[in-house]
Amino acid sequence: MYRNEQFNRWRRHPWHGLHARADGAPEDIVQVYIEMLPTDVVKYELDKGSGFLTVDRPQRTTSSPPALYGFIPRTYCAEEVANLCPDADEADGDPLDICVYSERLINRADIVLNARVVGGIQMIDDGEADDKIIAILDGDNIWGGARDIADLPDIKVERLQHYFSTYKMQPGKNINIKVDHVYGRDEALKVIAASEKDYHNHYGHLLQQKTE
Length: 212
Description:
Blueprint: E1 29-36, E2 42-46, E3 53-58, E4 68-71, H1 79-83, E5 90-91, E6 97-101, E7 111-125, E8 128-129, E9 132-137, H2 154-166, E10 177-184, H3 185-211
Parallel strand pairs: 5-8, 6-9
Antiparallel strand pairs: 1-4, 1-7, 2-3, 4-6, 7-8, 7-9, 7-10
């Protein structure tokens, strides 16, 4: 099951209280906290202070994410992630986003699942690196054999690119979003490692407090 240092009768914080990987998992299998579903037309986001899933905003358009959408616990996008994106001025200062494809319908968010990393999209949003890792639900009966981005139909990635390039659109307002660079498993693992290092650099003191 999911990694816990000890029994805790209180709900764990999805960002700080969970781990990026379950015990003994290979490096390409990560734990994911799901914030949004493909059916959602409201933008849900984790409140970083309380750990509760909150309504960020109703979407202005009919666009909805084409995959399960969430983040990898104990990751953070700061200096190390920005260093992997030369065209960005900085990173977005959030946990690392991840999109997970599942053949079977998952109809609720605020859950944790295991997913196999196959690639990612280097998104630059108003000068900020905001990578989107692409993964497959671990054990999925249709997509479970995928090991790299090339194992997925092109349309899977194209739909993600379209969603992230348009989901902030507003009439009369220009947006500056780039989603041109798609990368495979090896580069995705480097981005995850960089985000884990950023988390340790910025929030490692929280983990030290827990062990003292």
